[in-house]
Amino acid sequence: PQGRLLCGPGLRRSGAGLLVTKCGLLRHRPGGGGAYWVDSQQKRYVPVKGDHVIGIVTAKAGDVFRLDVGGSEPASLSYLAFEGATKRNRPNVQVGDLIYGQFVVANKDMEPEMVCIDSSGKSSGMGIIGQDGFLFKVSLGLIRKLLAPKCEIIQELSQLYPFELVLGMNGRIWVKAKTIQQTLIIVNILEACEYMTAEQRRQALAKLSGT
Amino acid sequence: QVWQIRLDMHLLNHDGNITDAASIAGIVALCHFRRPDVSVQGEEVTVYTPEERDPVPLSIHHMPICVSFAFYHQGTYLLVDPTEREERVMDGLLVIAMNKHHEICTIQSSGVVMLVQDQILRCSKITAVKVAEITELIQKALENDQKARKEGGKFGFAESIPNQRITAFKMESAAVDTNDVEEQAGEIIAKADPPAEVIANPVLHTPGTAQIGEGIESSWGDLEESEKEEAAEEEGESEAAALECEKVETEDTSTLRKTKNDEPIVLSDSEEEEVVILEPQELPRKTR
């Protein structure tokens, strides 16, 4: 086959052949020389540059916040990395707050660094996540499924109750609905989506909306 | 010359309280392990391969097991063997390692809670009970394994993994004592399906009645009120604002009645109990 073959996550080149390093389904994309990767399921997150994640502020060290992102090291976030932040105008971040940001530096040799603005200086949805709501952890595969365009789960859920949802690529989801029970119901459904088929999910949602 | 043994633990998945699980796994692995037999005659040391002579077990004197306790509200509430969610919101943690002879091997306290003497004594009594159960389970499992090996039955890790059953990413349903729901705040553990059965049908007001705010009446109005009073840690206090307006409209109702409430009706407690959404599940809440 012509073109360059792309070797994705779960595969590694060794000599002339390929080695599989993760268990899962082998996927193939035929465009432009082709790409192969292994679709694997895991809960543990490894920071990757450009990923949007939810972090929990664990400490304030001078000009920098330390965030727990679920990786092996805490990530650092400068207080200037917010939209409209200057030395005089500091963002109001406390220990224990939730932050939605993206990685600018993330490799295995260094501590990961995060920012809450994109390349043009706009926040585009990132920053401190508001009060209340519920944060919980799911597997990374479920997050990727939920982030796919036109995800059925999210569409079906949005017909149930209105709610706010933040998905972090590190497996963390933050949900907020009008009441505590609604929030918990959504949390339970999202957690159960790991192993429910589409049909079972629709049955559960139908029971909930009472139809 | 001495033997050197190394124990590696790989955490595949967890739902909290890794310390306890890891201690049990470690001690069982050491008890289960067999090393090659050795005979020493003067200066001569002969190490026999497993084929020549049966490997011998390590000489384990005792089996210390860790038990963890999570504290909330400055020591008012105590949870044994906390789950992941309970661990994340706890104030303090106390780990006691004990063997079945009631000898304490380790005590470790962390977090921002100050413990009183009698609390620690109470915890060590609980630990004694738990360690006795766990040690008995371990003994039985080791005996079963030995029997299976002798008789040629199936044994090993591959055999102990259940087939055709989902064990990862799955939550057990836990029974909840609904009597205390109004009195104590706490975790509400439920699977997605059971709450579905008892949730009220969303009642829509007549068209033409514009209502900004709650459009759906919640039958959990009273329940929320008590939860708000207890100020659960996970749900923020500002829920109170949202609950305020709900209180005026909803106040009540059993799931069977689809009336629109014009005046706040406060139900008696007993009626509320029947209506409470969380029903006890088949499995009792595990204390381990």
From TrEMBL, chain A:
Localization of this protein: Cytoplasm; Nucleus, Nucleolus
Membrane-spanning segments: none
InterPro entries assigned to the protein according to its UniProt record, in alphabetical order: Exosome_RNA_bind1/RRP40/RRP4, KH_dom_type_1, KH_dom_type_1_sf, NA-bd_OB-fold, RRP40_KH-I, RRP40_N, Rrp40_S1
Predominant cellular place of this UniProt entry's protein: cytoplasm
Pfam families in the record: KH_6, RRP40_N_mamm, RRP40_S1
BP GO terms, sorted: CUT catabolic process; exonucleolytic trimming to generate mature 3'-end of 5.8S rRNA from tricistronic rRNA transcript (SSU-rRNA, 5.8S rRNA, LSU-rRNA); nuclear polyadenylation-dependent rRNA catabolic process; poly(A)-dependent snoRNA 3'-end processing; regulation of gene expression; TRAMP-dependent tRNA surveillance pathway; U4 snRNA 3'-end processing
Family under the similarity heading: Belongs to the RRP40 family.
Descriptive protein name: Exosome complex component RRP40
Naturally occurring in which organism (per UniProt): Chaetops frenatus (Rufous rock-jumper)
Upper taxonomic lineage: Eukaryota, Metazoa, Chordata, Craniata, Vertebrata
UniProtKB/TrEMBL annotation, chain B:
Keyword Cytoplasm annotated: yes
GO cellular component, one term: cytoplasmic exosome (RNase complex)
Gene3D superfamilies from the UniProt entry: GHMP Kinase, N-terminal domain
Location relative to the cell: Cytoplasm; Nucleus
Superkingdom of source: Eukaryota
GO molecular function: mRNA 3'-UTR AU-rich region binding
InterPro entries hit by this protein: ExoRNase_PH_dom1 (IPR001247), ExoRNase_PH_dom2 (IPR015847), ExoRNase_PH_dom2_sf (IPR036345), Exosome_comp_Rrp42_subfam (IPR050590), PNPase/RNase_PH_dom_sf (IPR027408), Ribosomal_Su5_D2-typ_SF (IPR020568)
Keywords: Cytoplasm, rRNA processing
SUPFAM superfamilies: Ribonuclease PH domain 2-like, Ribosomal protein S5 domain 2-like
Record-given protein name: EXOS9 protein
Source organism per UniProt: Chaetops frenatus
Gene expressing this chain: Exosc9
